[in-house]
Amino acid sequence: MKSQDTPFEGGPMDGRVLPVLLGPTGHPPKTYRIPVPDAAGGPPTVLVYRRTPRGHSKRLGLVQGWKYVHDPEGLGDADRLRWPWSRPRRDNTPHGKPDDPTG
Asked: pTM (2 decimals)?
């Protein structure tokens, strides 16, 4: 498998460069999740980083490389373009009115 040294910006990984495995198209994944174990033995905290272009070429505007930027909300692909034929996103919000006991 091929990997690429990719810089990280923001959050606890700011300034670090890690080798990230590339996919079949030669690009790193759109989101990079890093589980950080809890010191007290609780559930791990997951840091979410989103892929952004590092720079563009002058003539053609091609992407010259990628970097990861910290996503503090950890939404990942929540704001991604959704097509009508896509599976619906799992929602954790209750259905109905908030004051309605029957839901």
From this structure: 0.69
Closest to 36 in 3D by CA, of 80, 74, 6, 68: 74
Strand 17-21 vs strand 63-70: parallel, antiparallel, or unpaired?
Answer: unpaired
User: Taking 60 as the threshold, does the pLDDT of residue 43 lie above it?
Assistant: yes
Q: State how far the Cα of 44 lies from the Cα of 9, in Å rounded to an integer.
A: 21
- pLDDT tens digits for range 75-90: 655 556 677 777 666 6
Average pLDDT value for the chain:
82
Contact between 2 and 25 (Cβ < 8 Å): no
| Locus of tokens 């091609």 | 62
Contact indicator for 13, 7 with CB cutoff of 8 Å:
no
The encoded tokens of residue 56 equal 């563009």
Give DSSP secondary structure letters for 23-71: -TTS---SEEEEEE--TTSSPPEEEEEEEEEEEE-TTT--EEEEEEEE-
